[in-house]
Amino acid sequence: MKIYTLLLLVMFTTLSKAQTHRFIYEYQFKPNSESKEYRKADMALDINPTDVKFYDYESVLNDSINKKGGRNYNWTGSPVITRKKNSYQNTNYEMMMDYFSYQTTDKMYWKLENETKTSGQYTLQKATTNFGGRAWTAWFAKDVNILEGPYKFRGLPGLIFELNDSQDNFIFKLAKSQKLEKTYDTSDFLESFAGKKPLNVKIDDMHKQMLKFYNDPMKDLREKFDDVPPGTFQVGGKKITSKDQFKEMAKVMQEHILKSYNPLDLTNAVIYPAVN
């Protein structure tokens, strides 16, 4: 990525406090810690006059379609947060059977290292921290006087260009930047999703909801089974023609949840029991 050609406008970011500065990060992540393949997403970091938002950039593209009369809603599972500017208090958004939000305070303590490297015209300095049960390495540019970075990572004396955990489960790399004349309206896909505002809960309640679904993932389909024609429901491409199949399908779903659960923040992770 030729960051140095795409970020020339960054040098002028302090000139207008009324504008929004959007930084797009290439996000690579492993669906589980044993996976050898990465999934990818482009993530938007919007630094607005009063707040900061981090979300999947695909939401912006879908929002444009929806504003033209479409109905393209897709929750990707990528981390989504908002916070007031210069704050470590984050609002986290999650989608399960419903749309939820919960609050966390995510102060982190950085160790500045002497090691540096270059990225185009920028000199990047190394910094390390322990956060969320993982060890992290960041590379930041002092020349870019923005103390922010991807997800909840902030507080370094410059913009974070690169970030990864010690096991390379999660990798963020700055790809490009944009300067917006006004704050982008995210109310249709972040502060609400598909017309529904999030239920604001405590994180313990969030875990209870996740466990409730995990323990009986076929509950809603099973309860509706008698009211629809046989073969209406499908799980993993397999038609459900008998209630006896729900027990088997529940195990398949539980195994899928376990296999695809690799939370970025381990300290706020739910503990799923093994499949019986």
Describe the protein in words.
It is a single chain. With 276 residues, the chain is an alpha+beta fold. Helix content is 17%, strand content 34%. The protein has five helices and 14 strands. The protein has helices at 3-6, 58-67, 203-215, 219-224, 245-259, and strands at 20-29, 39-47, 51-56, 81-84, 89-95, 99-105, 111-119, 122-131, 134-141, 159-165, 170-180, 199-200, 234-235, 238-239. The strands form two sheets. A twelve-stranded mixed sheet has the order 7-8-9-10-11-1-2-3-4-5-6-12. The chain has a two-stranded antiparallel ribbon with strand order 13-14. The radius of gyration is 21 Å and the shape is globular. It comes from Epilithonimonas ginsengisoli.
Please name the defining characteristics of this protein.
single chain, 276 residues, alpha+beta, twelve-stranded mixed β-sheet, two-stranded antiparallel sheet, 14 strands, 17% helix, 34% strand, globular, GLPGLI, signal
Note the topology.
Blueprint: H1 3-6, E1 20-29, E2 39-47, E3 51-56, H2 58-67, E4 81-84, E5 89-95, E6 99-105, E7 111-119, E8 122-131, E9 134-141, E10 159-165, E11 170-180, E12 199-200, H3 203-215, H4 219-224, E13 234-235, E14 238-239, H5 245-259
Parallel strand pairs: 6-12
Antiparallel strand pairs: 1-2, 1-11, 2-3, 3-4, 4-5, 5-6, 7-8, 8-9, 9-10, 10-11, 13-14
Would you identify the regions where 5 or more consecutive residues have pLDDT less than 50? 1-6, 11-15
The number of E-state strands comes to 14
* Terminal Cα span: 46 Å
One letter per element, helices H and strands E, the order comes to: HEEEHEEEEEEEEEHHEEH
If helices are DSSP runs of H or I spanning 4 or more residues, what is the number of helices?
5
- Biggest sheet layout: 12 strands, mixed
Q: What structural class do you assign from the helix and strand content?
A: alpha+beta
Please give the radius of gyration in angstroms.
21 Å
Strand order of the largest sheet: 7-8-9-10-11-1-2-3-4-5-6-12
Globally, the shape reads globular
Protein name: GLPGLI family protein
Keywords: Signal
Pfam family, one: Porph_ging
